[in-house]
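2 proteins. here.
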Amino acid sequence: WSHPGFGIQHPAGAGPILLLTSDNIKQRLGTAALDSLHEYRLSSWLGQQEDVHRIVLYQADSTLTPWTQRCIRQADCILIVGLGEQEPTVGELERMLERSAVRAQKQLVLLHREDGPAPARTVDWLNMRSWCSGHLHLCCPRRIFSRRSLPKLVELYERVCQRPPDRHSDFSRLARVLTGNAIALVLGGGGARGCAQVGIIRALAESGIPVDMVGGTSIGAFMGALYAEERNYSQMRIRAKQWAEGMTSMVKTVLDLTYPVTSVFSGAGFNSGIYSVFKDRQIEDLWIPAFAITTDISASAMRVHTDGSLWRYVRASMSLSGYMPPLCDPKDGHLLMDGGYINNLPADVARSMGAKVVIAIDVGSQDETDLTNYGDALSGWWLLWKRWNPLATKVKVLNMAEIQTRLAYVCCVRQLEMVRNSDYCEYLRPPIDNYGTLDFGKFDEICEVGYQHGRTVFDIWGRSGVLEKMLQDRQGTSKMKAGDVSAWAAPSPPPRCLHGPPLCPDESDYQTEYEEELLDGPRDAYADFQSAPADADPGSTSVSCPDTQGPWAELALRAPPCRPLGLPAA
């Protein structure tokens, strides 16, 4: 099984990266380099590497050795790496880490096969590691799970690193998150106008803009959850259109009517439609970190949902007052309503979660401002006469429902203006004002409007340098002092050991077409850190090979201080 550290060595936009192991440290500085007597020499040398490289990636040993302890001490963020398809067993090193007073942030990273099932049971991993502040799912190419000898592993990855990195890969997302370069997609509420978001997402993918986090309100929470689950425009569009067609069913609408004490509809039919899309999936199981916004009318507060039942919190975020009853939060029983009443375009929430850039798509309704000035008093009889008299001049006056709606969205309008004027937000609003909140039957038309608008805007971004700035490393490749990030790996059950001579002596011949193409290509010189003499220049840039003898790879990253993707609890 090849080490995921090689995958992190080849991310998009992460700058110079150095991978260190205990073996190549001994090769470089001598076999006694890790002894306590040489503590100063090792610390000085590591400090030089931090000045030279954007990221120093430490691979800890599989046991609590002096090198493993060094990795923990150096860390700003510890990555616990595990196989998502295996049991969430807690290893001895993790127990030690939990008992220790390590102040570094800890993140869970779960690896998944690209041809395997979607993430599941993430909550079991997190429940057994309550000290983890967040998690990421990585879809890995097949070469990550192949068994190879160390020379062949080095030979493969020296060719992989010759190729331009894929900014859409999950390893690139991990690199952007750790270095504070995450890009968030935020989708606003607006009913059927939210179908335009599907088209904009298509244009976003065609423009080569990666998405590291997604969140939304109301219809935006629905579309965002679909995208975070699928990561594929085609499948997302199919599922979104099927749901939109169900929203146009008059039979389902009539059958859901109830005696209007709390709401006109019981919500059972709407619940069924949302559940048919997401089933029992949890928010933690989504490929891309996601959140949904609701209004907690029990506590008069905004709620940010990053865990729990996906369909329930999406439904809660879409619960318009008067139409649907509030949803009772299964965690605390609080009543949750549409998030648009408090934050219809939560770009500020994405920013607080660590996004460097937020792409915000607004599909909310535009308030009518050309209203009639009727003076100090208003007679309903006069309005009735104006409405029924075909010869009278028509007047524009808000009715009681419209006044209540505007009052409900007052704070949301002010928040929207703050977001639009912020320096971290790229604001988009497609021309969808002619479509109503319930025009779900015009899905294809609205989607196409969003796509054409997205293509135009992203083309302008490309020509004006906005995309280049968005994808650029916030600290570039400048030589500077790096902060610390460290990572641990969860243990795998002994029968499922994927590599290492003790349990898996035979090397796998299994290769992908991409790997075969790489291995057949020309060979270049490889800066193998293990082959460097002990008296080599300590400031030289080098790449090391991970130890493939243990059942798990222990990773430690040394990266600049960043805004990690720590998603707040709901």
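next one coming up
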Amino acid sequence: MSCYSLHSGRITSNFDADSPCGIPNSTYPHVQCCVNGDYCMSNGICHYYNNNSDKGYYTADCTDPTLQDPACMTRCGAQPGAIIDYDENTGLWACCTYTSDGKANCSNLSDEKFPAPAPSKLVTIQYLPPTGTPEYATPTDVMSTPLVNSTSNQIGAGAAAGIGVGVGVGVFLLATTAAFFYFRRRRSSQHSGAASKTWTESVAEVQQPQTVFRYELGKPEPRPQELA
């Protein structure tokens, strides 16, 4: 699959140097491209890093020959190249200017600026080996759709759902434990009350005075008196 770029106002094909950053699908027929040996980052940015400590960023190319697809970026299209730099003062990315011999001069940034996360906040999407076919992961929307405000601190929907389920289970277990101890304590109190009542009644029966009739010899038994 060929990749296309916009430099000095002209669209050119970079199929010899570029590789797609992902696998197109029916929903997203076009994806961004970066140079072989570099890293595809989020927000339509590519990252290059050489062994001689030469590193930096540039805008991604695209598989759409017209560059009209939403996945395509036409940043720095007026410049001879696509090298960009992050401006710490403004928090924006800017296209670097070029010298007469075609070298990027990022100490003199152009007026073309665009918002995107700082370099440390960019997300790595795909590594493109210098030779051979890249080992792509399963197709994802992030490969073809730039994430303008993406950061590494965001939580996916699956993780949020997992957290919600965990909280629900924890609340259920807590309520079940509380109910268990409540009914256990209540039954214990009822049993203690019943035992105390039985013991009290037993003591009362033992201590209840009984009437004792004594009869002395030589004395007549008392008889009930008749009413006058």
